[in-house]
């Protein structure tokens, strides 16, 4: 079994040389009774993993990742050997797998049988899994978006962002997204139905840019990036506006400065700034799934996926997240279905 591990802690931007392939023999007879061995098919590549790879990651809320240990991640796979009577060879499962060809799921591991419900398996790593839940819960439970409100989304062509924008449009909101290239901006406007979009890399004054796109102010800001964009959004929030802080990717590599929004604006405009973790919102998972399946099934919502092939493409796929290399959900297909 080949897996991707980190060679060292990563305190700045990740490089492909920070990772290496390790091999180990996987056999049910070596594992605790009740274990299940799964062949990975599709695995998720996520920015938050970088915060786990830092030397001081103990200060983060996500569990830290020691070097040389296989990287756990959400994924979809097929059972190849089972010591658990609930699972048999050939079952499709979704859950916490790993950046590896096979993974051993010990008793108590977080995974379940997967019914694809007629959707491509890759959707069950993104739009019909945590990316979708994050978008749905952040927009409606944290951002409390209402019909007719003005919603701004950053990293809006990414895995979470492109779903936030589409959920908001289907809910009757006015939606503007920001992303880092002309092609991404065009895609948001032409394929995803955003009302408008802009390339933040071409905008020297983000506060003025947001004023231009939201002359009547922002009601909900879905923040994927933190840093200067968060400051600019707070500067443009309406009274009683809500900021759903999903992630601060511009701060993960240490290159961008940490956000310092004007707190007098927060006070006088009674703005709510609330961080959240998708895992806190498993209670809305059934509502989210029914909405997402309906929208995807009817073609009103598109799941953008950026799929690289093969275990060896994991390091470059991961590195690409931090320079805007991906369009939609970044997934690596480890094996054919
Ligand atoms: P994406 O698919 O959006 O990939 C990352 C994107 O972020 C890149 O494509 C890039 O797009 C953009 N980006 C990278 N560096 C910067 C930067 N310095 N400034 C601005 N944008 C940048 O990832 P996800 O959708 O998986 O995650 C989006 C955010 O949500 C992340 O911050 C992540 O940590 C967070 N998250 C939080 C969860 C939660 O439970 N709270 C769950 C899942 C994700 P571009 O070309 O536009 O720059």
From TrEMBL:
Tagged with keyword Oxidoreductase: yes
Keyword set, alphabetical order: Oxidoreductase
InterPro entries the record matches: ADH-like_C, ADH_N_2, ER, GroES-like_sf, MDR_fam, NAD(P)-bd_dom_sf
Pfam families on file: ADH_N_2, ADH_zinc_N
Domain annotation Enoyl reductase (ER): ranges: 12-332
UniProt keyword annotation of Transmembrane helix present: no
One term of GO molecular function: oxidoreductase activity, acting on the CH-CH group of donors, NAD or NADP as acceptor
Domain of life (superkingdom): Eukaryota
Identification of the protein by name: Enoyl reductase (ER) domain-containing protein
Organism: Linum tenue
């Amino acid at each position: 079994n080949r897996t991707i591990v980190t060679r060292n802690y990563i305190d700045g931007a990740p490089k492909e040389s920070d990772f290496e392939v390790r091999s180990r023999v996987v056999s049910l007879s070596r594992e605790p009774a009740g274990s299940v061995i799964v062949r990975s098919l599709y695995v998720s590549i996520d920015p938050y993993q970088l915060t786990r790879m830092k030397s001081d990651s103990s200060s983060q809320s996500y569990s830290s990742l020691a070097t040389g240990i296989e990287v756990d991640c959400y994924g979809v796979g097929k059972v190849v050997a089972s010591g658990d009577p609930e699972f048999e060879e050939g079952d499709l499962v979704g859950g916490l797998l790993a950046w590896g060809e096979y993974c051993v799921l010990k008793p108590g591991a977080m995974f379940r049988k997967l019914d694809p419900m007629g959707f491509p398996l890759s959707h069950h790593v993104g739009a019909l899994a945590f990316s979708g839940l994050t978008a749905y819960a952040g927009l409606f439970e944290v951002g409390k978006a209402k019909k007719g409100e003005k919603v701004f989304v950053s990293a809006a062509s990414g895995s979470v962002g492109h779903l936030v924008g589409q959920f908001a449009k289907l809910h009757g909101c006015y939606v503007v997204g920001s992303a880092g290239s002309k092609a991404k901006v065009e895609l948001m406007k032409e394929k995803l139905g955003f009302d408008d979009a802009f390339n933040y890399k071409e905008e020297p004054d983000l506060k003025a840019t947001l004023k231009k796109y939201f002359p009547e102010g922002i009601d909900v800001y879905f923040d994927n990036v933190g840093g200067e964009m968060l400051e600019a959004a707070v500067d443009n929030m309406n009274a009683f506006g809500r900021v759903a802080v999903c992630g601060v990717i511009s701060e993960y590599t240490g290159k961008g400065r940490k956000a310092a929004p004007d707190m007098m604006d927060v006070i006088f405009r009674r703005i709510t700034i609330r961080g959240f973790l998708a895992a806190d919102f498993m209670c809305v998972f059934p509502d989210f799934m029914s909405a997402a399946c309906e929208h995807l099934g009817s073609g009103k919502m598109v799941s953008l996926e950026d799929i690289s092939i093969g275990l060896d493409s994991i390091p470059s796929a991961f590195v690409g997240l931090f320079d805007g290399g991906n369009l939609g959900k970044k997934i690596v297909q480890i094996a054919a279905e």
